[in-house]
Design brief:
- There is one protein chain.
- The chain is α+β, with helices and mostly antiparallel strands and about 180 residues long.
- The protein contains three helices and eight strands, in the order H-E-E-E-E-E-E-E-H-E-H.
- The protein has helices at about 25-40, 135-145, 165-170; strands at about 45-50, 60-65, 75-90, 95-100, 105-115, 115-120, 125-135, 160-165.
- The structure holds nickel (II) ion.
- The site of nickel (II) ion has 6 residues, from helix 2.
Length: about 180
C-alpha cells in the first residue's frame, strides 16, 4: 500500500495509550498492517507500532530474519500482534543498546526482562500466545511500550548511556543493530 511517515519523539501521539482493536478481519485493519510492513521494510526496522505511523490502535508488527550484518541478533518470527498482553516469566533482566525509528540516529542502553509470555490476536481475531526469550522478548517489550505511550529513552536508567549512534559506535564499540 504505502510507506508512511514515521512520527518522531516529541509528537504527542507517541505519548498516548493506543485504543484496543474491536473489529477484526476488516479491510481497514488489513490496510493498516500493510502500511506498517511497507514502512518497517523501507526503514529496515525490526518492529513497528501503529502509533508510530499516526494510528492510535493497539497493533504492532515485528520480525528479524537472520542477517549476516548482525550475527548476534537472533532471528525473530515475523509477527502481527493485536491487543497484546505480556506476562513476565522471570525477574531476570539484561541490558542492550536499543534504537527506535521514532528516535532516529540514537541509541540507548535499556534493561528488559529476558523471559516473557505474550498473548494477543492475529488480524482474523484468532488469539495466540508465545513464550519468548532474549532479543525476541526485548522487541516485544519495546513495541508494546509504544502502545502505552512509552518510548525507550524513558526506560534508560543512566542517561550517559544514551547518544548518537555514530559516536557510540566509534567511541564505545556499540553494535548498530536493527532498531524498532
Ligand atoms: Ni520504537
Amino acid at each position: 500500500m504505502a510507506v508512511k511517515n514515521v512520527l518522531r519523539m516529541g509528537h504527542p501521539l507517541l505519548l498516548q495509550k493506543a485504543q484496543p482493536v474491536t473489529a477484526f478481519n476488516t479491510s481497514a485493519l488489513d490496510a493498516l498492517i500493510e502500511d506498517m510492513f511497507d514502512t518497517m521494510a523501507e526503514r529496515n526496522g525490526a518492529g513497528l507500532a501503529a502509533p508510530q505511523i499516526g494510528v492510535s490502535q493497539s497493533v504492532v508488527i515485528f520480525g528479524v530474519e537472520a542477517n549476516p550484518r548482525y550475527p548476534d541478533a537472533e532471528p525473530v518470527p515475523m509477527t502481527i500482534l493485536i491487543n497484546p498482553e505480556i506476562e513476565l516469566l522471570s525477574d531476570a533482566t539484561d541490558d542492550m543498546w536499543e534504537g527506535c525509528l521514532s528516535v532516529p540516529g540514537m541509541r540507548g542502553l535499556v534493561s528488559r526482562y529476558t523471559h516473557i509470555r505474550y498473548a494477543g490476536f492475529d488480524p482474523q481475531g484468532v488469539r495466540f500466545e508465545r513464550e519468548a526469550h532474549g532479543f525476541h522478548a526485548r522487541v516485544v517489550q519495546h513495541e508494546c511500550d509504544h502502545l502505552e505511550g512509552i518510548l525507550y529513552p524513558q526506560r534508560i536508567t543512566d542517561l550517559r548511556l544514551f547518544g548518537f549512534e555514530q559516536e557510540l559506535a566509534d567511541l564505545a564499540g556499540v553494535e548498530i543493530g536493527p532498531q524498532d
